[in-house]
Amino acid sequence: MFLSVFDVFKIGVGPSSSHTMGPMSAANRFLALILSNEWPRPSSGAQVVAITVSLHGSLAHTGIGHGTGRAVILGLMGEAPDSVDPDKMDGIVDTVERTGRITPEGHPGYQFQPKTDLIFDKKQPLPGHANGMIFSAFDRDGRLLVKRIYYSVGGGFVVTDTELEQMRAKKNAAGGTRVPYPFATARQMLDMAERSGLSIAQMKRANEESQRSPEELDQGLDRIWEAMRSCIERGLKVEGIMPGGLNVKRRARRIHDKLEEEWRSNRVNPLLANDWLSVYAMAVNEENAAGGRVVTAPTNGAAGVIPATIRYYEHFHEDWDQNGIRDYLLTAAAIGGIIKHNASISGAEVGCQGEVGSAAAMAAAGLAAVMGGTPEQIENAAEIALEHHLGMTCDPVAGLVQVPCIERNALGAVKAVTAASLAVKGDGQHFVPLDACIETMRQTGNDMSEKYKETSTGGLAVNVVEC
Prior knowledge:
The protein is of the alpha+beta class. The chain has two domains: 16-167, CATH 3.30.1330.90; 184-450, no CATH class. Helices cover 53% and strands 10% of the residues. The chain has helices at residues 5-8, 17-35, 58-66, 68-76, 89-99, 114-117, 161-170, 186-196, 200-209, 214-235, 252-265, 272-289, 305-316, 322-342, 347-350, 356-370, 375-387, 405-424, 434-447, 460-466; strands at residues 10-13, 50-57, 101-102, 110-111, 118-121, 131-138, 144-154, 157-160, 293-296. A five-stranded mixed beta sheet has the order 5-2-6-7-8. Strands 1-9 form a two-stranded antiparallel sheet. The longest helix is centred in the middle third of the chain and has 22 residues, at 214-235. The model has no long low-confidence stretch (mean pLDDT 95). Its EC number is 4.3.1.17.
């Protein structure tokens, strides 16, 4: 089993990897399909002149709050999550809404009126996954020419219905990308580390370098951290009200300014490290909620946990260096890959335990690694962090990634640091293996009511409004 660090960490835009980045990427794929020879062309020579899109399941229920409709429009205009300019998105969407046409580069242009051709279907979920989409293309007489079902399965990953079936069929089968250390479970990872004498980061690096050069790997890792760090810095500078209608104020800058004042005055603050962790995480997730540039880590809803703990490493560990940050990211990606392979990182599939819980486990593992932890201590750190997120629901108020999501990232970062500290002070021996914890998360997600899995039909999303 191999999932690249660049699949786990992807640069994109907010507010959601599965509800924003995924649908945008699905639209990109559908545009490419139209120009390809992968569908039967009609003998009449009819051409695509119009496109419609329907959103299902969680995408339909919380798509407005997550900006899913905007993401589809941007994707159909040829914009991609990692390259779209956040400052130009509103103008692009306004043009499509005004003209009723999409004009992606390399295409002749198609009819697409968002008010009628973009459907939020809350009644008809699709069978493969909670985040389902149907893209359809028609000729000038309204005849269907090509249709594809896509699923946004978390972390910005998008697959067709056929690909999803193939993924599930191959999940426990041999094969796939050949790498030196093909661990699919934490147990396998520890066994390989013991036999090889390598750290988790070193094994992950060897796997990555079987696919790319060391220089490309390091440049990519540095680019990921730079994007994370830039997101923190932007979030610490901006004030105001976040979009969406809840009138939630940004708080990161105000808290940051107070912490800076305490820092300069040398006032004693026993919660100093926690306060800095929290403000770093909140800065990222306020940027995410505003649709800014973020890194999925492993999702957008949980994008603040890992950057916050890396920035904490820079801030409070005198021996930090760039190689340490690279090792952190590689270790975190190894844990994230195991979680995704054996459970899920999708809030629509298993609740927020799969998002903030997974992020906290990855962050704890990465931090334990740079603190000198052994593979056993690193695995223990990940387990501690994940265990204490089990059962966490995904219940965003008004479908916006604001309440309670922003504060959950702050607490997830605090838990990650605590878990890493506990683990490296131990000997790596512990009662609950990480694999058992991941399986418990999967089972808990399967048993969880759909109203607590990113549909905003239960939990805080309902009770806050009623209050």
